[in-house]
Amino acid sequence: MTKAIYPAIWFSEAAKEAFNDYVDTFQNSSIIESNPVVVSAKLDGVPFIGINGGPYFTPNASISFMVICETTEEIDRLWAMLSDQGEVLMPLQAYPWSPHYGWLIDKNKVSWQLYSGTLADVNQQAIVPTLMFCGPQQGKCEAAIAFYKTVFSDFIEQGSVHYPDGDMQGQVMHAQFIIHGFTLMAMDSGVAQDFTFNEGISLVIPCQDQEEIDYYWAAMTKDGEESRCGWCKDPYGVSWQIVPHNIDEILRTHPAANKALMKMNKIDIAALLS
């Protein structure tokens, strides 16, 4: 089975500009490839793509990026850069779970949680996508994690903590797990929210062959939702892109592949190559 997933961020038209800013913001970062539609990059060593998809979807805080920093100075530096023209959700200060933590939405509507912690606790992955189950998905975090455990054969559960009291008692306050060597976090929202998952941020599963594509597509859409071009939603509303691992090469070297892709829900590799 395939060995890596990575997050994708939807932009109206400014993916390159946004990722240029992120490369300047995060250490050990670079743009890998860029075209008018897709920008691929590494931010602090973590792979991302940005998509210029038009004004159809906007990221929200249902999927944020937890940035683990080992010094308060690094958190302060990132906070100053990311909060410029942004919105503070939780001010930068001490909390019971971290001596120096804050949550903000940057000018691109992307959510970042800056956390004073230890990289060893997140498998040396400095930026961790964090799923927040809220709105119509409130309280479903534990069930979703159980679902992912059945879908991904190499799923590794790394523990969870539940809300001890209040309206969310018994729901998941924090969970961490690994899929294909990639660390993810998840939680139920601690307060009621009026939003939920959308296509603004999705997770990409690059597949080695058609068999893998068929497997993940069937698993995610059985009680989920199909969309175009390899996009789908799982039963809990999280958006996934199930694509060939070399989709960029296919689209670049086969002139008719782009047009064929636009007509597909589940991707048919043979049809793209024909």
UniProtKB/TrEMBL annotation:
Ranges of residues in domain PhnB-like: 4-114, 126-243
Domain of life: Bacteria
Protein name: VOC family protein
Species: Sphingobacterium bambusae
